[in-house]
Amino acid sequence: MDAKMKDIAREAGVSTATVGRVLHKRGYVSPDAKKRVEAAVQKLGYVPNTLARALITNRSGIIGCLVVEHAGNLHQEISRVVLAAAEARGYRLFTMQTRLNVRDEDELIRQFIGLRVDGLVVISNIYLTREQLSLLRTRQVPVVAIERAYFSPGVDNVCFRDVEGAEEAVRHFLERGHRRVAFIGPKPFAQTEEDRLEGFRRAMAAAGIPEYGQTVALTQAYGIDEGRAAAQRLLALPEPPTGLFCTADSLAAGAMQALYARGVRVPQDISISGYDNRIARELAPPIDSVEPDLDNLGGVTMDLLSARMERFDDAGRTEWLRMRYVDRGTVTAL
Amino acid sequence: MDAKMKDIAREAGVSTATVGRVLHKRGYVSPDAKKRVEAAVQKLGYVPNTLARALITNRSGIIGCLVVEHAGNLHQEISRVVLAAAEARGYRLFTMQTRLNVRDEDELIRQFIGLRVDGLVVISNIYLTREQLSLLRTRQVPVVAIERAYFSPGVDNVCFRDVEGAEEAVRHFLERGHRRVAFIGPKPFAQTEEDRLEGFRRAMAAAGIPEYGQTVALTQAYGIDEGRAAAQRLLALPEPPTGLFCTADSLAAGAMQALYARGVRVPQDISISGYDNRIARELAPPIDSVEPDLDNLGGVTMDLLSARMERFDDAGRTEWLRMRYVDRGTVTAL
DNA sequence: TGATAATATGTCAACGATGACACATCCGGA
DNA sequence: TCCGGATGTGTCATCGTTGACATATTATCA
After folding, report:
1. What are A50-94's pLDDT values in tens digits?
2. Are A282 and A139 a contacting pair, CB within 8 Å?
3. What is the dihedral sign for C-alpha A251, A257, A263, A267?
4. Which of B76, B111, B257 lies at the smallest CB-CB distance from A286?
5. Which of B1, B23, B41, B47 to mutate to test the interface with A (most CBs of A within 10 A)?
6. For FRET with A184, which of A45, A91, A145, A202 sits at 20 to 30 Å CA-CA?
7. In this complex, which of B93, B96, B115 lies closest to A50 when CB atoms are compared?
């Protein structure tokens, strides 16, 4: 059905080798033959079979992207910028998603290996297992992990400076005279969550506020409902906080609902900031948030990956992406 | 490097044919040979080469997904549910994205054809060109288009009942005594936008409100800023509307900011509803919205596609997905 | 006892593109 | 005139897997 090289060759009256030379613009081809081949390609609507090419060259031109989904994180946005960067560099990005589930991940990794991907991008806040890593390593598949640092041979990392990001956000409150700043964030279940809590603690400690004086509202997960409930609890305290530091915009959005319902105005009556800057700008009013450097993320990731695809070695490089505080004026002086 | 069937065969002391029989659980294999093959597969960490298999079977097991991105639409969410449905059915979904750009689309479609995808899902609110369609058609690639109906041979469609969705939302205002209901939505540039505007007009006309009495605020695009500006304009009218029907949650979110800034309370002072139900629940307060039946979308899409993959024909089937009005109480009686 | 079916395994030509290699021809310079 | 390089083209084994076909052995029944 589909035209193949042989068909082009016959149509143009040359051999498949010459067709190949025209297609790859490599080697000597007479202008005449070239013209005839191009005409035949056009006429028969020839599109080279990537699969056959990959089989013999042993390079698929495909990069796998494993996204471990998880309500309330940035993984969708991250995969989008990585996709854009990959396409810009001429790679095809093959995305597969899963929710936290080792069995699924095993299956997806086998699928990627079956496709003989040239590289793999893992976007996850949990770790791959040792077995999964070794499966990839014996096949010399370059891996770049976003969000989780592996420090493992053959794996490069792109990480967010979450401790510093959270620290800066909390300092924002403290510098404006706030003392009772509450932390709203999930009970740490991965590095990211620990880092943000750690950043909060560091900033508070640096301001001389002792551990037991800190108001920490841990939620079971990310989400609107969790944020709303946490804010309700905090507002009911005898001495409610004057500032709410939320470690996700979704939590902040929920908190805003609680505030709105109680008639507490932002920023006149209370200060608030979010994290991730995903929906912060969509709220009324738009609130402060902490933004990862997504503009660079795609490029950094693909640079690491292509360096490793050219020469596979055992070093494990790590790139740290800094966070940026986006000031929209919802943290005000007391 | 990678183990191949031949290696397994040697290790197990059988031929590749027997290895194949074990792998595909087909044909006769002695329990003993089976055991040895399985052990060899385990030992050598064999993963079949999907590319080679695809080459000879002429089925890649890959479904292409072309997402034409566009700020403010649901395409990310849609691609996610389609991905889930595809994975559940054992297909690999290969997603590529582009922004409105025919040249890019041509390139991506060629990439898909090069990969010999078994089917293609197009998520776009603009049409593929005639050339693109015929390229796919000569190769008998089943195509399912989401959002845009093609009524073109070889293309199945999954469409949203946007006229009815908008109509129902506007009726919600009218039934509660509103007369001055404003429409906030982009100047129609594709069917979706026209449909939502049409729905608004129908509902208003049915309530006896003449065309010239209708308040229509057309924006240049979807987005927070556009929604905010439109709401500001409307609030400045001598007789401001009592209800705002926004054809996207992002527009509604912007409108909410304008309301908040002016101290107009929702829903006490004004009624409002959004569309798409993407961020409506994250706002303070959460607002009414119109929700496409995303739960069914993935399944419906994949059903159409797999039916067509089994038997390619020229019929163009169309599935209409109904919209659901989500009532959160932000449209109240006057 | 021989015919037949069921069981078990191996051989080999595809799939479509690649690229090493061989073979031609032509030109310029020694 | 002969040689070497540039130019132009074709042949064929190969990539890893599949599946049609051939072959061999054992069990079953008339």
Report:
1. 999 999 999 999 999 999 877 667 888 898 899 889 988 888 888
2. no
3. positive
4. B257
5. B47
6. A145
7. B115
